[in-house]
Amino acid sequence: ALLISLACTILLLLGVHESKNVANFFTSLKMVLVAFLIAGGLALFRPSNFLVRPFCPYGAAGVMRGATSSFFGYLGYDEVCVVAGEAIKPEKTAPQAIL
How far apart are CA 42 and CA 87, in angstroms? Predict the structure, then answer.
């Protein structure tokens, strides 16, 4: 963490142009990684996997139930993080608040 903070500080001290170049590099790297994942997924795609059993056995209602569970799970995790960040002694009070 110290090295990353030091690198970010040096980057900011170098100026806006260098910061822009680094941001463009990481953006390009992310795009290449996403393209790699898509290509890998397409290379391993097997249509027979969708024929063995129904693709969506519980229909749209099942998809909505799963999305709702994921959404509320994320909200709960976010709330725990916010409470832990504002607590005076988070190592003691955060577990108590969760229970």
Answer: 46
Contact of 11 with 25, CB cutoff 8 Å? no
The pLDDT, as a whole number, for residue 26 is 93
Instruction: Look at residue 27 and tell me whether its pLDDT is greater than 80.
Output: yes
> How far apart, in Å, are the Cα atoms of 93 and each of 77, 80, 81, 89, 97?
16, 11, 12, 6, 6
Q: How confident is the model at residue 92, as a pLDDT?
A: 79
pTM: 0.47
DSSP conformational letter for 55? S
* Alpha-carbon distances, residue 23 vs 2, 10, 16, 59, 96 (angstroms): 20, 14, 10, 42, 41
Q: Which residues contact 80 (CB under 8 A, 6 or more apart)?
A: 94, 97, 98
Say how far apart CA 36 and CA 19 lie, in whole Å.
26
Token pair of 63, please? 């998809």
Rounded CA-CA distance 25/12 in Å is 16
